Amino acid sequence: MAGANVWPSEPEGFRDACLNYYHAVIDVGKVLFRLFALALDLPETYFDDKTKNSAAIMRMHHYPPQTGPEDDGTVGIGAHTDFECFTILWQEPGIQALQVLNSEKRWVHAPPIPGTLVIK
């Protein structure tokens, strides 16, 4: 599928709010790439030309609250590995949805912390 995004007419300002968030997160990503370069003892701008026209994608997921036992039929996006260089996530405060696979190969909750982003 390709083409222009289809935006709902309501709520008012939704499209602008989403695009403002998208561009702010792109800016965070640019900072992260510069930090990665420095951590690798490369020039700070090393990744600039490699990410100038990156295919950054914003996905908005809603995970409905789960009230019953967890099983393979539980609604959600399911266990997966992100294929991007990194993922920047904002979580709704007070709603537990994200889990991450720990070093013991167990899925553990990543509780939302107000005022933060999850970088994975």
Report the biggest beta sheet as strand number plus sense, adding barrel if it closes.
Answer: 2 strands, antiparallel
Q: Please estimate the helix content.
A: 25-40%
- List the helices and strands in order: HHEEEE
The secondary-structure class comes to alpha+beta
Q: Please give the radius of gyration in angstroms.
A: 17 Å
| Overall pLDDT metric | 84
Q: Can you walk me through this structure?
A:
It is a single chain. The chain has 120 residues and is an alpha+beta fold. The radius of gyration is 17 Å and the shape is globular. Helices cover 25% and strands 8% of the residues. It contains 2 helices and 4 strands; from the N terminus they run ααββββ. The mean pLDDT is 84. The strands form 2 sheets. Strands 1-4 form a two-stranded antiparallel ribbon. Strand 2 and strand 3 form a beta hairpin. The relative contact order is 0.12. It starts with 13 loop residues before the first helix and ends with a strand.
Write a compact overview of the structure shown:
With 120 residues, this protein is α+β, with helices and mostly antiparallel strands. It contains two helices and four strands. It has helices at 14-39, 48-51; strands at residues 88-89, 99-101, 107-109, 118-119.
Features:
two-stranded antiparallel sheet, 4 strands, globular, 120 residues, alpha+beta
Write the layout of secondary structure elements.
Blueprint: H1 14-39, H2 48-51, E1 88-89, E2 99-101, E3 107-109, E4 118-119
Antiparallel strand pairs: 1-4, 2-3
